[in-house]
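Structure in, sequence out. Go:
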């Protein structure tokens, strides 16, 4: 078949375009297949952790933690407590002191310091740990962004039979009259109580304080903060009847908040707010030795990475049950279970503790926990005894 002049030109043009396309394609780089990326090694059992593996314990940044404030001498700028609240608190402390001392001749004097908060409090929580029964409770109230206040709470009760030891407050429990209640808690934490026995002129009698014998040692902490996060925090540890003036104002703050909250505890899944409450309460300062078991038990159920430093420190306890509870909490929070070997068999506790301490202990360049002696407040706190 013969082509005319027009067909011949069209064919030549098509052939030229095909040649140019092939030349261009030959200059394009040929994509190379990507090598598969190796998954990050995560140890889920007690197998040895490679030295170059990522850290299995996500230690928190301690610099992000807010610090509590002390009662400053800012009387010139300090807004005094409303007279009604001051009189009510002073009356309650007077009654408590007289009942504690069991002395009709007791003189009680209550003064109020200046709160370090910059504005009205919007959140408070209290913690009580019983040394005799081994129970713990943390109760709080917080203002919601949209307005209104809700209650929050956690408690640990030693197991009895089939009972559940960790319980949480029912969600969305509204708190009425929270503004005045928070002002009373703030005022109670600024209170200082002094007592003396009234003596008549010429009275040569020796006035002795009643002696109380009890095994009911306890630890109590109360915390209040404003919208900026500035907080006032006070704690007390001992037996009823000891350090009485210091204890009374803290106990009044606890009682004021506790009476205002509904106590409807249920068994439910923890929320981020529940985890935050436990983390803030435990990280607020040092705790006595008898608080280790209930707090570690709570951490195994609703702990968070913010508690890792506290938990890791308990691996050094002399008590094997405390070590075991710390291991349970670490396994729950990190997802790394070193309690069993690759075959699923239980490993010796000393080996498990050694693995967690090696992997999770904060290195020097990662900062350190705040010094217990640096905790601020009024009056100065003594160091809590260890086990």
């Amino acid at each position: 078949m013969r082509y005319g002049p027009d067909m011949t030109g069209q064919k030549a043009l098509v052939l030229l375009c095909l040649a140019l396309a092939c030349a261009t394609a030959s200059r394009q780089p040929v994509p190379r297949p990507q090598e598969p990326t190796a998954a990050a090694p995560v140890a889920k059992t007690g197998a040895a952790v490679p030295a170059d593996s990522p850290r299995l314990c996500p230690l928190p940044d301690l610099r992000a933690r807010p610090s509590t404030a002390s009662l400053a001498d800012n009387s010139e700028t300090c807004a005094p407590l409303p007279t009604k609240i001051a009189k009510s608190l002073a009356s309650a402390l007077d009654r408590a002191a007289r009942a504690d001392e069991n002395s009709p001749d007791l003189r009680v004097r209550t003064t109020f310091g200046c709160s370090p908060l910059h504005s009205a409090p919007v959140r408070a929580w209290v913690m009580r740990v019983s040394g005799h029964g081994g129970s713990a409770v943390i109760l709080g109230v917080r203002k919601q962004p949209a307005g209104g206040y809700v209650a929050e709470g956690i408690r640990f009760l030693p197991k009895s039979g089939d009972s559940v030891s960790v319980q949480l407050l029912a969600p969305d429990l509204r708190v009425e009259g929270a503004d005045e209640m928070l002002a009373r808690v703030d005022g109670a934490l600024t209170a200082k109580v002094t007592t003396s026995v009234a003596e008549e002129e010429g009275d040569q009698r020796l006035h002795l304080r009643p002696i109380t014998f009890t095994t009911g040692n306890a630890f109590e902490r109360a915390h209040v903060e404003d919208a900026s996060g500035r907080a006032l925090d006070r704690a007390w540890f001992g037996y009823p009847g000891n350090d009485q003036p210091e204890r009374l104002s803290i106990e009044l703050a606890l009682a004021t908040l506790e009476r205002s909250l509904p106590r409807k505890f249920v068994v439910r899944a923890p929320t981020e707010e529940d985890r935050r409450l436990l983390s803030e309460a435990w990280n607020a300062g040092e705790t006595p030795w008898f608080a280790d078991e209930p707090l570690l038990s709570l951490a195994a159920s609703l702990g968070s990475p913010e508690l890792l430093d506290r938990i890791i420190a308990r691996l050094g306890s002399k008590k094997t049950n405390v070590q075991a509870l710390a291991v349970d909490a670490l396994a729950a929070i990190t997802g790394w279970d070193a309690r069993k070997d690759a075959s699923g068999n239980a490993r010796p506790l000393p080996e498990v503790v050694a693995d967690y301490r090696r992997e999770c202990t904060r290195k020097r360049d990662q900062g350190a926990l705040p010094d217990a002696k640096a905790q601020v407040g009024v009056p100065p706190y003594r160091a809590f005894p260890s086990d």
